[in-house]
Request: fold
Amino acid sequence: MSQQDMGSGSEMADAQAMAAVLREKLDDAAVPGGVAEFAPDEAEQAGAFAEDALDEQDAAAGAIDLADASAPPPLIRSRDHERHTQVTD
Reply:
């Protein structure tokens, strides 16, 4: 980015100061138990609102095949009597 794109030298100094504050807040946030508050524009610059959701193809690839979902639960024998119990993981 050229200085003409940035505008005056004071705008460039402001941008550098904001970047330094953002780096300091990110360092504070990386400390276990540390607390750092971010303004909405700072959070966006830090990548807090990056879209990383699955797309439709990835979701379809991870779909569970429920073809046997209507099968009855397995029969489990106990010492006292027979009973139907649904096995869960």
The beta strands are 75-77, 82-84.
